[in-house]
Amino acid sequence: MAPRREPFGRIALAGALFQGGAAATDPATIVASLAHGLTQSAFWAAAAASVVRLGWLAPQLLVAYWATARPRMPFYRLGAFGRVAALAAVALLVAAG
Question: Could you read off the pLDDT of 39-92 as tens digits, one per residue?
Fold first, then answer.
């Protein structure tokens, strides 16, 4: 039994569509587009996109040094419960809205 071969074009198209969708829904893209629409300034659009990235990375930099000297399992538990609590809060807001 010969292995099934997928046409290269279909696989390449699926990858291109996925990457396009991921780029279109990226928070930095959405925030930059919103900032540009509100201010008509490329500077503020770029600054908003940078702040989105900084907001994701800065807490990790601040906590990393503090967390290295402590056991890791409490951080994993706190992160897991924090994600569940945030998801539940979003679900409640959507249901209430």
Answer: 999 999 999 888 888 877 888 877 777 777 777 677 778 888 888 999 999 999
* 3 state SS of 41: coil
What tens digit of pLDDT does each residue of 4-18 get?
776 888 889 999 999
Q: Measure the CA–CA gap between 11 and 56, rounded to whole angstroms.
A: 32
- Return phi, psi of residue 41, to 5°: -120, 125
Query: How many CA atoms, within 13 angstroms, populate the side-chain half-sphere of residue 94?
Result: 6
Cβ atoms of 50 and 56 within 8 Å: the answer is no
| Four-residue CA torsion sign, 85, 88, 92, 94 | positive
What letter would DSSP give residue 69? T
Tell me how crowded residue 49 is: count the other CB atoms within 10 A of its CB.
20
CA contacts within 13 A on the Cβ side of 22: 6
pTM of the full structure: 0.46
